[in-house]
Specification:
The complex is a heterodimer. By secondary structure, chain A is an alpha/beta fold. Chain A has twelve helices and 15 strands. In chain A, the strands form three sheets. In chain A, strands 3-2-4-5-7-6-13 form a seven-stranded mixed sheet, sandwiched between helices. In chain A, strands 10-12-11-14-15 form a five-stranded mixed sheet, with helices on both faces. In chain A, helix 9 links the parallel strand 11 and strand 12. In chain A, helix 3 runs parallel beside helix 4. The radius of gyration of chain A is 21 Å and the shape is globular. By secondary structure, chain B is an alpha/beta fold. Helices cover about 40% and strands about 20% of the residues of chain B. In chain B, strand 5 and strand 6 form a beta hairpin. In chain B, helix 1 crosses helix 8 and helix 4 packs across helix 5. The N and C termini of chain B lie far apart (about 45 Å). Classes of the chains: A alpha/beta, B alpha/beta. At the A-B interface, helix 3, helix 4 and strand 9 of A face strand 1, strand 2, helix 3 and helix 5 of B. Strand 9 of chain A pairs parallel with strand 2 of chain B, so a sheet runs across the interface.
Chain lengths: ~350, ~250
């Protein structure tokens, strides 16, 4: 698909991911088929060879994440994508990448679970994504798009943040965002100043130090030092890269908080509430890790009632509660993932009304 | 005076952690000799696995990626595809390659990845203390087969050099041993051939090196060396199982 930068195109979220990855300079993709994200490997299997890139349909999700590890260790931009069951299998490799301070982009188009679950919209992998997911105690960057335009832009951002902070970055979207078609402006790759990758494994040329990409730390104090170093990096990430969207929060007496496609439905419900004279706003985290804690703390100084809405029985609500002021209340409306569980704007409007009346 | 025996440049001047009588050191040396001979040290990427082979970067003077247990062929695939002008090899033990990593090795070989795999088969999990491996011989006692490997329950040992030779993607597959001067000379030749195949971009090359593990076999180094002759080689015959140059 040939376009100029300004020309709008009409594409699926999954296709937008693939296009953004190519724009970001990703030339290595390793994946395994799983619904609802298979458009990503399909698109890249078509486009990468012509660009001199490498596409491998791996033998397994485990194979794919380890190919990503190997490619990334040599300094190139590389990506994999999957959904719940596949992301679970990738956790071993993600842990090793985190332990080896390797960048790399992982797209997670969530489906319902646990187990084989279903292919409907879900946000129940929030914990898996934001708590690291694998063994050993680590975090990865997690970006949560709410539109096809945003999944395009955040995929490119994921590559930049991953390179800058030397940790895996995940784009976490539900199947609505992955499968929905919307118009997108295919923006150019951001002109980000990236640190030189002096650590990469390329073959030890004469006069250069030996580079080793590893996660084994056996020496006295080495492992502990690694953890404190990463903790400081997570803090830097939170200070510099927290992203969120606020809609009509300035005068709000109730703030709805939601991420991904749920926030889109919530926006419509909030418009309905505003028309009915209720002062309701929206707080949407765009970075789930780092979670925009300071922004929540700030708005909870003036608004004391939050309504957290998720396509799960409640996961992000833990972070919301840990972030808001102590005297702020956080109500919850959740729909566990599965067929028919996507709430309507009217349904969310009812929830807003119920909570709004209770506070006034 | 002419110096006739030196340390290969690709090896660091350090002591290894390997037990007395272990053959890892010999395999390391032969791999290093091959890197020296082809002058490829500065463009070689080693992929270490989990087990006694994990400290590859401590002994080889090359860039190294440490991979999760069994995943070295997938990691090497990613590295080689990203940097096709580099020489990429994995160095794996039997538990790593033939148990937890069976899927990765089979598929990397079947894709004909242009990498070299050095597989050290000592019929046991060395690093974790001598448990039963996928190559443990029938009847062999280990810490998790205290009554001896029962092939009816545990299956028979995998013969990896033969198994991989059946895949079209494999260009070269050979089994060698390090327990006698004659075998070492042959092993040197085979390992060089394996790397030559990669230098010439001829595809996937595989070396299975039978190795002694005196510590976990409960033997002294000499008896362990003899066991390679008496028990391992009869079950795992030495030789070239696939050589596309001969096809």
């Amino acid at each position: 698909m040939q376009t100029t930068a300004a020309e709008k195109i009409f594409v699926k979220g999954n296709e937008a991911v693939a296009m953004a990855a190519l724009e970001a300079g990703c030339r290595c993709y390793f994946g395994y088929p799983i619904t609802p994200q298979s458009d990503i490997p399909e698109y890249l299997s078509r486009e990468l060879p012509g660009l001199g890139g490498e596409f491998i349909q791996a033998e397994s999700e485990i194979g794919a994440i380890n190919m990503l590890l190997g490619a990334s260790a040599t300094g190139v931009r590389a990506m994999t994508s999957s959904s719940g069951p596949g992301i679970s299998l990738k956790q071993e490799g993600i842990s090793y990448m985190a332990g080896s301070e390797l960048p790399g982009v992982i797209i997670d188009i969530m489906r319902a679970g646990p187990g084989l679950g279903g292919i409907d919209a879900s946000q129940a992998d929030y914990f898996q994504a934001t708590r690291g997911g694998g063994h050993g105690g680590y975090r990865i960057i997690v970006l949560a798009p709410a539109s096809v335009q945003e999944i395009y832009d955040l995929t490119m951002l994921a590559f930049d943040l991953s390179d800058i902070y030397r940790m895996p970055a995940m784009v976490l979207a539900d199947s609505v965002i992955g499968q929905m078609k919307e118009s997108v402006t295919p923006n150019s790759r951001p002109k980000t100043v990236l640190p030189p990758k002096e650590w990469v494994v390329r073959g030890r040329a004469e006069g250069t130090p030996q580079n080793v990409v590893k996660s084994l730390y056996l020496g006295d104090g080495e492992m502990e030092a690694f953890h404190w170093k990463m903790q400081a990096r997570y803090q830097e990430l939170a200070d510099k890269e927290s992203r969120w969207e606020e809609v009509q929060t300035a005068d709000a007496e109730l703030i709805v908080t939601a991420f991904g496609s749920t926030s889109r439905i919530a926006k419509t419900a909030i418009s309905m509430a505003r028309e009915a004279g209720m002062k309701v706003g929206l707080m949407r985290p765009i970075t789930l890790f780092p979670f925009p804690k300071k922004a929540y703390a700030a708005i909870s100084e003036r608004c004391k009632l939050f309504l957290d809405i998720e396509l799960s029985t409640g996961q992000m609500i833990d972070d919301v509660r840990l972030s808001v002021a102590r005297d702020a209340e956080v109500a919850f409306y959740g729909r566990p993932p599965g067929a028919g569980s996507l709430p309507t704007p009217e349904e969310l409007f009812e929830q807003i009304k119920k909570n709004y009346q209770a506070c006034s | 005076m002419k110096q006739v025996f030196t340390r290969p440049e690709s090896l660091k001047d350090v002591s290894t952690h390997f037990c007395p009588g272990c053959h890892h050191g010999s395999v390391h040396r032969l791999v290093a000799e091959a890197l020296d001979e082809f002058g490829i040290r500065s463009r070689t990427i080693g992929v270490a696995s989990v087990g006694c082979s994990v400290f590859l970067y401590g002994y080889f003077d090359i860039d190294v990626i440490e991979s999760p247990h069994g995943r070295a062929p997938a990691v090497a695939t990613g590295a080689k595809r990203a940097r096709p002008d580099r020489i990429v090899f994995t160095y794996q033990g039997d538990g790593d390659l033939a148990a937890i990593g069976m899927s990765e090795i089979i598929h990397a070989a079947n894709r004909g990845e242009d990498i070299t795999v050095i597989f050290v088969n000592n019929t046991t999990y060395g690093m974790t203390g001598g448990q039963m491996a996928p190559t443990t011989l029938p009847g062999q006692k280990t810490s998790t087969s205290p009554y001896g490997r029962d092939v009816r329950k545990d299956g028979a040992p995998f013969k990896m050099a033969e198994l991989l030779s059946n895949l079209d993607g494999v260009a070269f597959s050979a089994r060698v041993a390090l327990n006698s001067p004659k075998n070492v000379i042959q092993a040197r030749k085979m390992i060089k051939t394996a790397f030559r195949y990669q230098v010439e971009k001829k595809g996937f090359s595989f070396i299975e090196a039978l190795s002694a593990c005196p510590t976990n076999w409960g033997m002294n180094p000499l008896d362990a060396n003899q066991r390679v002759t008496d028990e391992l080689i009869p079950y795992f015959p030495l030789g070239v199982y696939k050589n596309t140059a001969n096809l």
